[in-house]
Amino acid sequence: MSDTGIGARVKRKEDHRFITGKGQYTDDINLKDQTYAYFVRSPYAHATIKSIKIPKWKPEDGVVGVFTGDHVAEDKIGGLICGWMIHSKDGSPMKAGPHPILAQGKVRYVGDHVAVVVAESKEQAKAAAARINVSYGELPHVVDAAKAAKSAAQIHDVAPNNTVFEWSLGDKTATDAAFSRAHHVTKLDIVNNRLIPNAMEPRAAIGSWDAGNDHYTLYTTSQNPHVARLVISAFHGLAPEHKLRVIAPDVGGGFGSKIFIYAEEVVCVWASKRIGGRPIKWTAERTESFLADAHGRDHVTHAELAMDAQGRILGLKCHTIAGMGAYLSTFASCVPTYLYATLLSGQYAIPAIYAEVDAVYTNTAPVDAYRGAGRPEATYVVERIVETAAREMKIDPAEFRRRNFVKSFPHQTPVIMTYDAGDYDASLEKALEIADYRGFAQRKAAAAKKGKLRGIGFANYIEACGIAPSAAVGSLGAGVGLWESAEVRVNPVGTVEILTGSHSHGQGHETTFAQLVSDRLGVDINTVSIVHGDTDKVQFGMGTYGSRSGAVGMTAIAKALDKVEAKAKKVAAHVMEAAEGDIEFKNGTFSVKGTDKKMAFGEVALAAYVAHKFPTSEIEPGLKESAFHDPTNFTFPAGCHICEVEIDRDTGVTEIVNWTAVDDFGTVINPMIVEGQVHGGITQGVGQALTEGCVYDPDSGQLITGSYMDYCMPRASDVPSFKLDFTETKCPSNPLGMKGCGEAGAIAAPAAVMNAVTDALGVRDLPMPASPHTVWKALHATKMAAE
Amino acid sequence: MDNFNYHRPSKPADAAKAMKKAKDGKFMSGGMTLLPTMKQGLASPTDIIDLGGLKNSGVTAAAAKVVVKAGTVHADVASDKGVKKAIPALAKLASGIGDPHVRNRGTIGGSIANNDPAADYPAAVVGLGATVQTSARKIPGDKFFTGMFETALKSDEIVSAVEFPVPKRAAYVKFPNPASRYAMVGVMVAELKDGSVRVAVTGAGPKVFRVPEMEKALQAKFSADAIAGIQVKAKGLNSDIHASPEYRAHLVNVLARRAVAAAK
Prior knowledge:
The structure holds 2 protein chains of 2 kinds. By secondary structure, chain A is an alpha+beta fold. In chain A, the strands form 7 sheets. A 7-stranded mixed sheet of chain A has the order 3-5-1-12-9-10-11, with helices on both faces. A 5-stranded mixed sheet of chain A has the order 7-15-14-13-8, with helices on both faces. In chain A, helix 9 packs parallel to helix 18, helix 15 (549-575) crosses helix 16 and helix 17 (671-691) crosses helix 18. Chain A is globular. The model of chain B has no long low-confidence stretch (mean pLDDT 97). Chains A and B meet through helix 3 and helix 19 of A and helix 11 of B.
């Protein structure tokens, strides 16, 4: 291993730029004659719009234009789409209600976009927006997913009972049969709490129309600018793709929330033409992020697990109500279906599984993919019920898992997925050792002496990521393929530019992708630059989400690098007057087998561009290759997280005192960055388990947790120093053997924490977040019952 | 934020004059509450009278009392050697207000004049038996806080200093709101030099309040056990998504016991 190649702890190349404030985020960019947008948003959860009164503006108001749904309709601008078709059990397609970029006649959640004011300054736009008088007629509303189907609110005409779809996966008959043979059945009702993403950089957009070329440019905080261009072009009908450039410059975190195409960015680019081509900038205020970013999770689940007398799992049944919010966001429908129920087998050989998912509209912000997207929800169901089953059957939870692990690969689950490689025993055993599982009883006793309740909890998660094979996702309803593209441009002096369809918004691609190039071409990592996030530079790409940039994006780069090497060998053979088959390439040097003839990579690059010494009729000048990569399977990272907590009986405060994570991500490119991903993921999951929870007021439909005064993000002091380790089984579906690590921590953590908290308290379940108040209520209830 | 007239008087009398003239004036000290409120459009005063021009800050700590001038920022109280020695509980309380930004801009005068029900300083003023010195008079701490965001101050009256008698021992224990870090419940317990005991609670109710039963029990015996069985009534306490009145009532007892144990 070189000190900058695969496996090296290379410091992040991009960090100097970021920590010195030299990043270029969308809001840092200012275009000539720029104007500013401010959105008029609905103060009601559900209402008709009776009228919109726009005052007569004076010059000092600085208003350039005000646009409403009527203008959108006039220009025939299409609505926001959901790009994944789900069919109900009865074969009917999902009921997708219209989602106009500015409301047309009706608003469906607090924060819904009603009108936009474009003005000379941000302050003027905001002040003018406050003077627009919208008259609403309130309608009945519902914010609770579990109550949506029976609510008096009728959110979309196309969706009776607010039901988007009633979907199922698995074999009901076989599962019922398995339950009929059961020695023991464990039942659990659990809620996967709704979350608000909170990327550090709020969403922002600048739209501009170039009258001379009838061409649009959109700067936006996107995880996948090419998909944004495709959707804005094909569905909103704003401009054909060659007349629309989408740039996602530095992006400050996404966690899924910036995958989606939102109304605000489409409005900015559309309205720019309406005002004669002046650019329009919009940057979300933090309040708008809370109100109008796509939220995550929001599942209400009843699950049952059937076991034989030895604690071997016979079957799993599960019914989930998934809140979708008021509209179907870009990929919303696949999250509680194919990204969720397909993982309900966990790490276990479960012969029969049957899952039903009812997706419902509520008068809340749309819900879509959020770090883990479906897999945290699945892991939460599986790992909570497995832990509960082990407790009920009085089998050690580690042993219970061990008995049920998938042991041979490939393994076909009853819910679509074929696990390709893994060693779940290995990660469990290593984690037990690091966590000193044997010493737990002693630590619990010591804690009790201090008046603390100590608990331990496992999460043996698996996830499917590196999404994924285009044909597979297509057969499941995806509107797009999920391959990735790459282009390797070698400059005449031997420096390298990698153009990738992946997008970095915190992942560190500028470092890890360069490590791959350094490893393969033997060049200095500082001679490699990574180009991404601009549809004019990179031909096409599917973007970054679902922990796919390594397994899919880097594999595309690796394939293009293979082509570069092959061509460079041809050039080198001619220059060194040798047979192509005799050229060897190692550590950045081309040499002729059995001789001392050699050329450095840079020399071959120059020779390729100078093109003096090879027949250009046979070999084209230049050194630039591209590749598309479509994998043959998802990848299946898995691991074992063990959390230990201590609970203060007096206050209900939960302290995480130990955390062990042993993950199998296949090949690790940069352990430092991977550890950072695990730290961040766990912390996000701890947030879900202990501090975060989106609360809408059922009576008013208002978002109560609309700021950091009430929405509690996890802090550094909420997490311990993590003990991380890895096991490694190579992923067979990509040549680098990578699996992906971006979401694992967030997938594993909530179940690990809640298993530990319920263990400490001796209760079956507790709602997340297990805030001090929630824990105290449980302690208080136990005390009351005892008295 | 709407436009407003800005004044920065250098004398208290001028500040009062500016306030009298203003249609809807507001005194601003550190601005740590007022400015965010204005940014959110929840307050829209016509005139801001910035008290920073009065240059009224500083701490004097003597054996009998600690005097904190109204414009003193929390960080200065927290780090003042005299305060740390005379009333460590006061220094600790100041060190836990808000975040470093707030502690370096927010002032004691601004905090008590605003009287946020979850602010920390009211617990110190009442719990330590302090006296509030204003531009017009001296107001006993017990009479200063009259209701939620309400004080005994007249509209043009300005806090000039707070005088804290040095107690025999005291401690402040706070249970921060998990999200905002304001006091969900904060309890100051002090045994004064005259032998009287004060227990003042912030965050739990609409305004700071004392717990006479605990004070009586502690006066008899200053130990955590003495108040183990004394619960405040949940009725009337604050209720929000973070804590029910019952939980707050429970925490008052827990924190009071911890404060007694920590008092020095």
